[in-house]
Design brief:
Layout (H helix, E strand, L loop, with lengths): L1 E4 L2 E5 L2 E3 L4 E5 L3 H4 L7 H17 L3 E5 L8 H12 L10 E3 L10
Parallel strand pairs: 4-5
Antiparallel strand pairs: 1-2, 1-6, 3-4
Length: 108
């Protein structure tokens, strides 16, 4: 999903729960150990932090998952997600969530 605010793209999240305004991000190490587009790992980490800060400032709750979380760590993740999804997201939203078409940014 693409999260937009103030007429601009704030970020793209891997999974989205609309009613609760919960974004789920799946993190793999390759993004940080072998980044693309000429960025170094420190730059990638900084950009991720700033994007997540912007999402949270919009009252979007963010859950980050790794491969290990989908295995042995899943019971704890499931409890956390269930708790977050039990509470509605903000009544007044400063953002819109728009489906991303096949992983490619929409023309606009």
């Amino acid at each position: 999903m693409e999260i937009e605010a103030g007429g601009r793209l704030v970020g793209v999240v891997d999974a989205w729960f609309e009613a609760a305004a919960v974004a789920v991000e799946f993190d793999g190490q390759v993004k940080y150990t072998d980044p693309w587009r000429g960025r170094d790992p420190q730059r990638v980490l900084w950009e991720e932090k700033r994007r997540e800060d912007e999402l949270r400032a919009l009252d979007i709750r963010v859950v980050r998952l790794t491969d290990a979380d989908t295995r042995a760590g899943w019971p704890a993740v499931e409890r956390r997600l269930r708790g977050l999804l039990a509470a509605p997201g903000p009544a007044v939203r400063q953002f819109t969530a728009v489906p991303r078409v096949r992983g490619v940014r929409r023309a606009g």
